[in-house]
Amino acid sequence: MGSADILPALYKCPAPYFEGDSSSTLRSSPCLGSSAHTNQNSPRPPVSPTLKALRLPWLTEEFAVPAMARAAGRERRLLAIYTGGTIGMRSEGGVLVPGRGLAAVLRTLHMFHDEEYAQAHRLPEDTLVLPLAGPDQRILYTVLECQPLFDSSDMTITEWVQIAQTIERHYTQYQGFVVIHGTDTMAFAASVLSFMLENLQKPVILTGAQVPIHALWNDGRENLLGALLMAGQYIIPEVCLFFQNQLFRGNRTTKVDARRFAAFCSPNLPPLATVGADVTINRELVRKASGKDRLVVHSSMERDVGLLRLYPGIPASLVRTFLRPPLKGVVMETFGSGNGPTKPDLLLELREAAEQGLIIVNCTHCLQGAVTSDYASGMAMAGAGIVSGFDMTSEAALAKLSYVLGQPGLTLDDRKKLLAKNLRGEMTLPMTDERRSSLQDGMLGCRVAWLLSLNGSQEADAMQDVLMPSLALAAAHAGDLDTLQAFVELGRDLNLKDCSGQTPLHAAARRGHAAVVAMLLQRGVDVNARNEDGHSPLLLAVRGRHQGVIGLLRAAGACLSPQELEDVGTELCRLASRADSEGLRAWWQAGADLGQLGYDGHCALQVAEAAGNADVVALLQSFKDRLSAQPQAH
């Protein structure tokens, strides 16, 4: 979803809030003219001092795209970039070689192309269309075949830059991208593309096969169809890899089997989605995309990086030779949790290389786990100036190193700091002692810190599932940003609901915590969530007269439902009779029609005039003038 998709939606209620024929609920007001319950075309209210104090530049831009939401629209258009790989290979002389014409093959398979629909709608020759993917939804896709095709073993940064630039050229034409790639270097490709493509707001899904699609028994059809469906039906703003019915974050994957269909795994992060009889989605794991920035393609990637795997007894002289120029960065695979030989001559070589400007990233060669400093040998590595790779795969670490070294104008310290940050979801950062200490300063934070310290047993997971919603709401109610940030670090979805349907956004809006509301909106929470009483965060903010919060919610697309506005006329008349200008202003800011009639057939302006409340009359008249000054839709 891009700018053109999001901006028209601002100030408009989602479809579920206008089910059925709403025309019977509209009526003309003698006070402010004819309008619906909610003034959807009301001008954006001025930014309040509270919002200005927050200094959030994205307030005037688009808000976070709801990740993993179902994609809307009758037709979704995708670009499938065919680079080569086993999926399209043919047998020549007893060996597999890249095969051309994948689009022609797919056109003959009904699961990949509905020829009847294509002819009825006169689709272009280069456009294929899947059978009906959902209620009145079609996925159209164009296959762009690389010239020449590549065996993935021959792929380099040069070819991956070309793929990224192809996505950039066609970015506005399509709602998603599928990259058909060989499996041998697919994890490398996914990692590199994740760093090349910054501010990604659309899905880019890599897939391939262990067996060619021409074979009777193959995995290519299932993988490609799954990738097309995931890219076409869901909003996934990141680079992913789809294989054997699982959708992984691309820079978390590694190839673990040369023959079986389950060729890839994500050792330190669960799949983003799993496909079976139903699609199971881990929404809290999907990265949220802010729509405020355009796609940036980083094509300047450093090629002089390498991978060094330590082994018992590795000679210091061999390490010295490997670390020589022109090498600028190296990913070093160590034992266990980041340990290595503590021989003085080996540590000296590493230390001298680091002092001369070579960046060394420490990654464990274990499939699961992370680099820590629990052991003396691990501490020795850190003492030699080596950067911890935490739980990154070697593929991700190599891609990240290439990306960071390719950024111009950075000092050595800047590059090391950037490597230690989670840039594209490639690593899980441990909770710092400072953050843990700050959490433990309060009773609420202490409980969250305790939850964070639990291991991943089933009992611990069950306890977290039970306690997290209540603790998240308590943190939002108290305005505790540190504790909420701890939830984010734990990978928890901040759309958590308690037994009454309250979300953290409800709690923060009720209390008027603008900074917490801003943080939650940045994380992509549902701005129009309703509790069991049907109340939205916006209604709670209106009742609390929290104008700063109302402005944030409205800018994010919040609106009042017809049910919430059912008796608004009577409430407005009550406020007018009490000269409650602040309350009236809150309703106006929330998009309510202040000309709605009360139970006795009068509107707020008439009540204010009868009560002699001159200030309220002036305020309501100013709102009426603003409404009249707006261009009328025809």
Automatic annotation (TrEMBL):
| NAD listed as a keyword | no
Name the InterPro entries on file: Ankyrin_rpt, Ankyrin_rpt-contain_sf, AsnA_fam, Asp/glu_Ase-like_sf, Asparaginase/glutaminase-like, Asparaginase/glutaminase_AS2, Asparaginase_C, L-asparaginase_C
Q: Which SUPFAM superfamilies match?
A: Ankyrin repeat (SSF48403), Glutaminase/Asparaginase (SSF53774)
Q: Indicate whether Hydrolase appears among the record's keywords.
A: yes
Which residue numbers delimit the L-asparaginase N-terminal domain? 78-286
Instruction: Report each ANK repeat as a residue range.
Output: 500-532
A Pfam family reported for this protein in Swiss-Prot or TrEMBL? Asparaginase
User: What EC number(s) has UniProt assigned to this enzyme?
Assistant: 3.5.1.1
Keywords (alphabetical) are: ANK repeat, Hydrolase
Locate the region Disordered.
Answer: 28-49
Question: Signal sequence: where?
Answer: none
Q: Which residues form the Asparaginase/glutaminase C-terminal domain?
A: 304-414
Q: Which residues form the active site?
A: T183
UniProt feature, compositional bias: Polar residues = 28-42
Which residue stretches, if any, does this entry annotate as coiled coil?
A: none
- Tell me which PANTHER family the record gives: 60 KDA LYSOPHOSPHOLIPASE (PTHR11707:SF28), L-ASPARAGINASE (PTHR11707)
Q: What is this protein called?
A: asparaginase
